[in-house]
Amino acid sequence: MQTDTKNKILDIAADLLQDKGFNAFSYHHISSLLGIKNAAVHYHYPTKESLGIDIIRRARSNFAQITQEASSLHLYPWQQFDIFLDIYRKNLSDNHKVCLMGSLGAAYFTLPSGMQEEVKLMVNEILDWLTQLLESGRSSNNFTFKGDARSKATLITTSLAGALQMARITDNTHFHTVIDQVKADLSN
Amino acid sequence: MQTDTKNKILDIAADLLQDKGFNAFSYHHISSLLGIKNAAVHYHYPTKESLGIDIIRRARSNFAQITQEASSLHLYPWQQFDIFLDIYRKNLSDNHKVCLMGSLGAAYFTLPSGMQEEVKLMVNEILDWLTQLLESGRSSNNFTFKGDARSKATLITTSLAGALQMARITDNTHFHTVIDQVKADLSN
DNA sequence: TTGCATACTTACTAACTAGTAAGTACGTTT
DNA sequence: AAACGTACTTACTAGTTAGTAAGTATGCAA
Q1: Are B158 and A157 in contact (CB < 8 Å)?
Q2: To the nearest whole angstrom, how far is the Cα of A127 from the nearest Cα of chain B?
């Protein structure tokens, strides 16, 4: 059981991470938003690395839950794909947040090693799941694409990560443009 | 005419920016790599914003030069596209640097306003050029793709930005995978 | 009621940050 | 020879950073 404060810290820190990046938020930012002292944040997360690791772990667990749920509901490939896209749509609508892969990838070489390992796990899990969805969707004639499914999964994931970054520089239409293009490229 | 030192500062700062991100390098990093004092860097670039702006301006000017040269040589669409891809290939081979759009997009909301403006100009120039190349390449039956050229240009640019970030997290094959997929999606 | 764990606050440190003011060495112009 | 601009160094500041040590209030268990 996580305490209320610990959960709030995680919420705020994840938000800041996807808004400003890992090297542009501090314990003080978090504590002042919560109306507590920075030492209280250190009580729950002794180091910034431990905090960063927990942010990624929670995202991994959320992703696993979303995909398991979609799987247990026996949704069609296109419906499952749309649930996947919703993750990115939500980031965009939530003050132009960038996805975790984008935020952490850009700062990757400045991250503590424990976080780097966790990011690797996360990216591979996303790629594994999407690859499987594309593969089975192609078998059932729902998706059409050239090449192997993992390549396509990689292309889609990198496009979406880049699209969120592009959207904050230019405007939201570029993001929706990418989504439409990705969908068009999967359709017959 | 720029001085030798000023050019070296720009080289090192651009490198650090594409390696660690704007919020993870300091005047001290630059000066110590050059064997000078941090005040000497401030002499050439009074503020970090002025330094950041110059990094982007130089990249814009380099891009304009590359594309103008390709244009004046009357290269085929595929050759021009390959020159464009070389920019990204070079970033990858140069210690897994990320492209400027990716680095600055991830930290966008922490950037001084002058830099934000400069990034916008850069992204639009890249998009304009690629859109035109795709359009004329399609007219001449060299490229095949659905939808309008600017959408395709957006998809390609975001894929490549994301691919460089993904490559440092996982491995280089993911980057080449994206390049191959992008090319396949442009071919007949 | 004593003891202990939880969840903090107070008060601090050492390192690093961008940025500045004043001085210096040196080559060029007048 | 005097004056000036360029390219620095020395020496500093004020603010921010992650992280710590010691103390405190509260509630629960023995």
Answers
A1: no
A2: 11
The C-alpha atoms of residue A25 and residue A13 are separated, in whole angstroms, by: 8
Nearest Cα neighbor of B22 from B45, B58, B56 is: B56
Tokens of A147: 């090449």
**Tokens representing residue B85 in the block:** 């891809």
Q: Which residue has the tokens 């390709």?
A: B70
pTM: 0.95
Cα separation of A27 and A85, whole Å?
32
In which residue are the tokens 């290269």 written? B75
Residues of A in contact with B172 (CB under 8 A): none
Give the single-character DSSP code of A98: P
pLDDT digits (tens, 9 = 90+) for A37-91: 999 999 999 999 999 999 999 999 999 999 999 989 999 999 999 999 999 999 9
> How many CB pairs below 8 Å do chains A and B form together?
180
Residue B20 has pLDDT above 60, yes or no: yes
